[in-house]
Specification:
about 75% helix, about 0% strand
Length: about 300
């Protein structure tokens, strides 16, 4: 049961990450490879505040969201001066920079050694210690983020995002401020990505830079692509599938000498099948470079 609860907590974390990225990528048309960076900023902010200054969860969470949002705001004001593939490359560069800072700013982050000893979450004197209580807390945040994004995307601002993701020039001709709408969407996406980062840091009680790499950004983007752009329920299903599938393959009876490699082959094969099976429904609006990147990611599983 502890193992199942652990997997469910990870599923909830990736649901929040994919839904927050879906706001920028699906609705705003901004394919970002920097999402793991915002995720990492949330985790490191919570860890540093909790370990070094004993700052409680209810203060470290909004602090992490503000810091992540400020970075997203800075990135968006610069990166949105580019378009399409150039924007993707720009966010990829930001992801590499954030990871390098986490890995090399040893005096602050302790580099590859990571930050251990992150305490349990305390909310109004209640300690979140067991996996049961932690998953209840995580599910509450999943529901809050889900309904916040649904309300946001169903509003006039959300309709503007939908329009510019389809035809940016036409949306601008209607008098909509496309640049400002994209900046707001990207900033909110970065802020929301900090929430699962904070929860992950408190849950694992130890973090290091290897959890926030470019591969992690690609994995989060793959959840959005498979689940469907502008589809929050699809992100829920895709996150559940992609997190649980590798674990389910562990229980397939295979000889130990080939089990690890076969699991990777089967997992990569399933991803490729899903990409081609649903490519007309899910990937039609993606730049060719992103479709190629996603294909390379799935092929790397072999």
């Amino acid at each position: 049961m502890e193992y199942i609860l652990h997997l469910l907590i990870l599923v909830c974390i990736y649901i929040m990450l994919s839904q927050s990225l879906n706001l920028a990528a699906g609705f705003g048309g901004m394919i970002s490879l920097a999402h793991a960076g915002f995720y990492g900023i949330g985790a490191y902010t919570a860890a540093l505040l909790a370990v070094n200054y004993q700052i409680p969860f209810l203060i470290s969470l909004p602090t992490a969201m503000i810091l992540s949002g400020l970075l997203a705001l800075l990135i968006s004001t610069i990166a949105l001066r580019t378009v399409d593939d150039y924007f993707i490359i720009c966010t990829l560069g930001i992801q590499v920079i954030v990871f390098s800072l986490m890995n090399n700013w040893i005096s602050l982050t302790k580099g590859s050694l990571g930050i251990p000893g992150i305490p349990n979450i305390q909310i109004f004197g209640i300690s979140i210690e067991s996996k049961w209580t932690f998953i209840l807390l995580t599910v509450c945040f999943v529901i809050l983020i889900f309904f916040f994004l649904k309300k946001l995307t169903d509003s006039a601002f959300g309709r503007t995002l939908r329009a510019l993701s389809e035809d940016e020039i036409f949306t601008q001709s209607l008098g909509k401020n496309v640049y400002l709408s994209k900046v707001i969407a990207f900033t909110l996406s970065g802020m929301l990505a900090a929430v699962p980062g904070v929860l992950y840091a408190y849950y694992i009680s130890y973090i290091n830079p290897t959890s926030f790499t470019v591969d992690e950004s690609i994995f989060i983007l793959s959840i959005v692509i498979i689940g469907g752009m502008q589809n929050f329920w699809g992100s829920v299903i895709a996150a559940t599938f992609l997190v649980l599938l590798p674990e389910a393959l562990r229980f397939v009876g295979m000889p130990n000498t080939i089990a690890a490699n076969m699991r990777q082959i089967i997992y990569g094969g399933v991803l490729i099948f899903m990409m081609f099976r649903y490519s007309r429904g899910l990937n039609y609006s993606l730049p060719k470079s992103i479709q190629s990147l996603f294909l390379l990611m799935t092929l790397s599983k072999f």
